[in-house]
Amino acid sequence: RIFKACSDKVEDIPFYACTTNTISTAAKSWVENSRFSNQEHKWVEVTVGSTTIDELVKEFGVPDHIKIDVEGYEETTLLGMTKKYSPEICFEWAEEEGDSAVRCVEYLKNLGYDEFGYIITDSYLVKPDKYFSLKEFKEEFSYDAERKTEWGMIWAR
Predict the structure, then answer these.
(1) Residue burial 36-53, b: 16+ Cβ < 10 Å; e: rest
(2) pTM, two decimal places
(3) 29 CB burial (10 A radius; 0-12, 13-18, 19+)
(4) pLDDT (tens digit, 9 = 90+) per residue, 47-62?
(5) Distance in angstroms (rounded) separating the CA atoms of residues 117 and 53
(6) What's the confidence (pLDDT) of residue 125?
(7) Deepest of 64, 72, 76, 119, by most Cβ within 10 A of its Cβ?
């Protein structure tokens, strides 16, 4: 087991532990602007070590699949991956981070992924029925950052 956050650098970073299970994050924007930024959820900032996908591949080898689910920290996590490793990758998206999700897809295109799809559920076991080129994906993928209700997984292959 690795007890570190996955980020764009190997260093100590702030991490926001939430009293509600499954929504802790390294993304300050998630704490301040997500659907979970209300009084109901309590956050505690701690410092944790971080690593990168590149470093994990060096240590453990090339994976068959990469799944990223880091509550608004997907873009920073992907920046720690400087080449295409697995034939497919998926990451969680949320409407309030929709612009970041599109930047993630653009970054993955630069790494060599050519087809992109999405689903409105966060199961990495459910793949999209349809994949698109980057241009088509950007035309098809829609979100309302103010609504903050939809989320799911974006796939690249």
Answers:
(1) beeeeeebeeeeeebbbb
(2) 0.94
(3) middle
(4) 999 999 999 999 999 9
(5) 22
(6) 85
(7) 72
Which residue carries 């532990």 as its tokens?
17
* Mean pLDDT computed over every residue of the chain: 95
Query: Which value, to the nearest 10 degrees, does the dihedral of the CA atoms of residues 99, 88, 58, 78 take?
Result: 0
d(CA 87, CA 157): 6
Q: Is 127 exposed, middle or buried (0-12, 13-18, 19+ CB in 10 A)?
A: middle
Please give the structure tokens belonging to residue 88.
């497919």
Contacts by 19-27 with C-beta closer than 8 Å and gap 24+?
19/43, 19/44, 23/71, 24/71, 25/70, 25/71, 25/72, 25/73, 26/50, 26/70, 26/73, 26/76, 27/70, 27/71, 27/72, 27/73, 27/76
- Strand, helix or coil at 77? helix
